[in-house]
Amino acid sequence: MAVISQIQGVGLGLKRELIPQIQASYGQKELANINFLEIAPENWINVGGKSARQLEWIAERYPIVCHGLCLSLGGLSPLNVGFLQQVKTFLHQYQIPVYTEHLSYSTDGFKGEQGYLYDLLPIPFTEEAVHYVAKRIRQTQDILGQRIGVENASSYVASPVSDMKELDFINAVLEEADCLLHLDINNIYVNSVNFGFDPHAFLSGIPGERIIYSHMAGHYQQAPDLLVDTHGENVIDPVWALLEDAYQRFGTFPTLLERDNNIPPLNVLVHELNKIADYQHKARHSSAAYQPTAHVTAAAMATEL
Amino acid sequence: MSADLPSFQRYQLAFTARLRDPHHQPPIAGVPRERMAVYEEIVFNNLFESVSACFPVAQKVLGKRKWLKLTQAFLREYSASTPLFRKIPEQFLHYLETNQQEQALPPYLYSLCHYEWVELFAASVPEDIHHGNADASGDLAKQQPVFTASMQLLDYEYPVHKISQRHKPQQKESTQLLVYRNADDQVKFIELNAVTHSLLTLLLEQAITGEQALTLIAKELQHPQPESIIQFGLGILEDLRQQGVIIGTR
Fold first, then answer.
1. Contact A43 B86 (CB under 8 A)
2. Contact by Cβ (8 Å): B36, B49
3. Which residues neighbour A147 within 8 Å (Cβ) at sequence distance 6 or greater?
4. In chain B, what residues touch A109 (CB-CB under 8 Å)?
5. Dist. CA A217–CA A185, nearest whole Å
6. Does B202 contact A at CB distance below 8 Å?
7. What is the b/e burial string over B16-30, where b = at least 16 CB atoms within 10 angstroms of the residue's CB?
8. A215 min Cα distance to partner chain B (Å)
């Protein structure tokens, strides 16, 4: 049974094609720096057959975190309470202590419909949007009986109706919802290029004590001023530098590699996992990031709310 | 209808309207076209890939141009109701069933797509937790056969399992199949004759024993020797148990 304090060190986003390789190399030194795995509930809820057997195998051996894609915290459609109940059951079933989502939306449903577009769309940064999103995060936390983390999203379009900066939007939402931050280091970098700001200055404004864990990933450079968050390339040096900066500022926190496209063999992928571990090792400061009490389970967290 | 919404939500509606239909919806004021195009491509391509992966035969039979138009129309016109990615093909199927299409589509397309989708469905449907109670070596004649939860009886107007780019059906041909996932997690199809299809339908719909179901079948066929039908039918049920379609009795 995984508890939140077991989410430590280095993690890997679990893709189906990686499972046979993990099974084949399990217990070997090569995989020493895979400390936890991340799955999207949208891919695994209510599966049977081979997928169910694979998930059971994984859950027996690794702490798991859930990182959702389609909750649509910023969407017009009503919060999908039925789906959240399924998520809750799923988290309990596999003893998954952490659930995070994106500060984005993926639906355009109107008048009770959902209207899933299955993608992460940018919420305009406005005061009204802060209240709207924070309320839905609180509703989510009430239903699940635990705090969730929300991820700073990558985006390609600056909304002309925004009346605040992304950093102010994120901080206002975190404050008002009193939730945790799932810090995506690559997304800070992607947005800094797409919208022309200093990523290190952005990082300095992040509330480090709310970080539950972070993401590292590669992206695709479509134009000198346009990066697309594909998770299909290696992590580039400026993003490594941002991670190092973040560890310096806030102390180390659990960090997970996302690789969703153009996936190399596991024995190549582990080089980037080992690199994360090296950075963590090097960071001397003790962690100021979110420190859960040891042995707090998802269920026990409910009583803390 | 959106006038009373806050400005960020009115913007979101214009934004998603454009994503759903970039060819007809106006560009959004103040948003660079090439940036918006990133979202237009990502949203469509993801949906296109999810749908296309499930329907390789339908895609080939229809041809690239028509398939593209159909998936564009799906994005434009359908309000998907589930966040589960593996259910996107099921939503597409529902769209095909319920929406009038602008372009002429082959009459067998829906059946073909259903046949392609049901393979995915059988591969991933959860096991029924109550099935653990079935007696694996129970008497198929005197007890009720229990089917694996993945088993689906299929009844098509076209020979869907024979359709390919080179073999497009010109006329209807009633086709009965069953699909199931075996103990090794492989999805299998079995072609059925009309009588076996009726027998399995009876057993699925009514809480009756193998012998009772076969007696009803013999009566319906007005067979002079019902006993031979029962013996023959029990042989079929035993065979289905060997293959893992029937997991036992209760």
1. yes
2. no
3. A141, A178, A179, A180, A301, A305
4. 79
5. 8
6. no
7. bbbbbebeeeeebee
8. 21
Candidates A159, A160, A156, A173; CA nearest to A73 is A173
Geometric angle at alpha carbon A164, from A163 and A167, rounded to 5°: 160
pLDDT value of residue B80: 96
How is residue B109 written in tokens?
């397309």
d(CA A124, CA A162): 5
ipTM surpasses cut 0.85: yes
As a whole number of angstroms, the distance between CA A12 and CA A39 comes to 9
> Could you give the CA distance from residue B88 to residue A31 in angstroms, rounded to a whole number?
34
Tokens of B202: 């009876």
Beta carbons of A70 and B42 less than 8 Å apart: no
Candidate from A114, A119, A157 with C-beta closest to B43: A119
- Distance CA(A213)–CA(A229), nearest Å, equals 19
- In contact, B78 and B99? CB cutoff 8 Å: yes
CB–CB contact A42 B181 (8 Å): no
pLDDT (tens digit, 9 = 90+) per residue, B97-132? 998 888 899 999 999 999 999 999 999 999 876 666
Tell me how far apart the alpha carbons of residues B19 and B41 are, in angstroms, rounded to a whole number: 8
CB atoms within 10 A of CB A47: 18
Q: Are strands A255-258 and A211-217 parallel, antiparallel or unpaired?
A: parallel
* Tokens 């067979």, residue located: B223
Low-confidence ranges of chain A (pLDDT < 50): 1, 294-305
- Token representation of residue B121: 């469905």
Q: Tokens in use for B27?
A: 């560009």
